[in-house]
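Input.
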Amino acid sequence: MRVRDFSRPTTLNTDRLFGQVAQKLAVAIISGTVRAGELLPNEDDLRAEISVSRTAYREAVKVLTAKGLVEARPKSGTRVAPRDGWNLLDPDVLSWHFEADPNEKFIRDLFELRRFVEPSAARLAALRRTPADLARIETAYRGMIDNPPYAEVTIRADLAFHEAVFAAAQNSTLHCLASVVAATIQWSLLLKSADDKDYFVASLTDHERVLDAIIRRDGDLAAARMTTLVIDSLNTTLASLGPLTTSQTHKIA
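Output.
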């Protein structure tokens, strides 16, 4: 059983028709149903699945264009853009990847980014944190241990923990990546079983160890422990996708 979908990390309002159209087109693109260079399905093509107005379709195409998924070519219509032009760090694009059933390569890519970014944030947080910063991290951790596994409030506390670490690093450019990390954490939790209490307990231990290093103001220790946290999270996320060999599970560049 997957975690309840209480807060998908997306900025797009899918209650609006254009948001639904954008989501459907994006998932078709990301899943490979419509490939790079191919014409985007038009509103007539979509009517079999969803009621589409010309206005909603045009608004949806504007959204996809802004996020790099499609491009308009003179005299040849709107076509799917090459993947290397997509804004992969956009919360909506991340969301659509998971809607399209993410493959192992994409998940590894996201966690590699986390491994590059979060240990650095933890190191700086240990060295620069203020009493207020530390209180935020401790409060978030307390929210994780005082509430049931995978409850909405517990997952929000998990997200708050990582956000507080980024804030404590006191680096505005690094902090810009906090939303990407948050989206990855939320979606990785959606892939896990809500009955897997062992993972939850292990995750609490990892978070506690990061907090302890930040309290000690030991930057190297905080970075090392955050690295362990990210790798452990990767391994459990990959395990939720199906059986992998030991070498596959632990390989992260």
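The chain has two domains: 17-85, 102-241.
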